[in-house]
C-alpha cells in the first residue's frame, strides 16, 4: 500500500478548505468569505447583498454590464469598482447547487430553484407591506445579508401567516 505524499496531503487539505469557504446549499453559509467591501457599500446599500452563487456567470456579466439601467435604476459605478466586483462575482457564480440556468431577465426570483423553494408562497405574501417583493430576501431570511438561508433562521414578518406550510423545504 502506498503512503500519501506530502503533495497529495496538501491537495486534500486545500480541497477541504475550499469546500468550507465556498457556497453551501440550504442549511449553511453561502456568501463567499472574500466579499469585497465595495459589494456591501454599493450593492447592499439598495438591496440584499445577493450571494453570487445564486446566478450563473453569464447573468452576473450582463447585470454588471448594464448597471446604467439596473432594473429601472441607474446604479453606475466607476470602472475600477465594476472590474473588482465583476471579477468576484464571476469567480463565485453558480455555486448554489451548481446553478447554470440563466433565469428570465437575470432575476433571482424567476429562477427555477427560487420558484421551487417558494412554490407555496401565495402572491399576496410578496405584496405584504413588510415584504414588498420576492426580491426582499431579508424580510424572512434573517441571515440573508450574510448569505445564510438556513431553514432554522426563517422568521415570517408580523402579520404574515402561512400556517403550517414549510414552503422552503424541498
Explain what you see:
There is one protein chain. With 170 residues, the chain is mainly alpha-helical. It has one domain (25-153). Helices cover 33% and strands 0% of the residues. It has helices spanning 6-21, 37-43, 57-65, 79-92, 112-117, 123-126. Keywords: Signal. This is Cytochrome C. Pfam families: DHC.
Domains, number:
1
Number of helices: 6
Taking pLDDT < 50 over at least 5 consecutive residues as the criterion, the unreliable ranges are: 9-28, 166-170
Order of helical and strand elements: HHHHHH
The main sheet comes to: none
The helicity comes to: 25-40%
How much is the average pLDDT? 80
What percent strand?
Answer: under 5%
Shape: globular
How many strand units? 0
The Cα radius of gyration reads: 18 Å
Query: Termini distance?
Result: 43 Å
Structural class: mainly alpha
Amino acid at each position: 500500500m502506498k503512503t500519501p505524499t506530502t503533495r497529495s496531503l496538501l491537495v486534500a487539505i486545500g480541497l477541504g478548505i475550499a469546500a468550507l469557504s465556498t457556497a453551501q446549499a440550504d442549511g449553511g453559509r453561502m456568501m463567499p468569505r472574500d466579499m469585497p467591501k465595495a459589494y456591501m457599500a454599493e450593492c447592499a446599500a439598495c438591496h440584499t447583498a445577493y450571494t453570487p452563487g445564486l446566478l450563473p456567470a453569464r447573468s452576473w456579466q450582463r447585470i454588471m454590464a448594464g448597471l446604467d439601467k439596473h432594473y429601472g435604476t441607474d446604479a453606475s459605478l466607476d470602472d475600477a469598482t465594476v472590474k473588482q466586483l465583476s471579477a468576484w462575482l464571476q469567480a463565485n457564480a453558480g455555486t448554489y447547487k451548481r446553478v447554470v440556468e440563466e433565469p428570465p431577465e437575470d432575476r433571482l426570483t424567476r429562477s427555477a430553484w427560487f420558484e421551487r423553494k417558494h412554490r407555496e408562497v401565495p402572491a399576496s405574501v410578496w405584496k405584504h407591506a413588510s415584504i414588498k417583493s420576492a426580491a426582499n430576501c431579508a424580510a424572512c431570511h434573517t441571515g440573508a445579508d450574510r448569505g445564510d438561508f438556513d431553514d432554522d433562521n426563517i422568521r415570517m414578518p408580523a402579520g404574515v401567516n402561512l400556517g403550517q406550510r414549510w414552503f422552503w423545504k424541498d
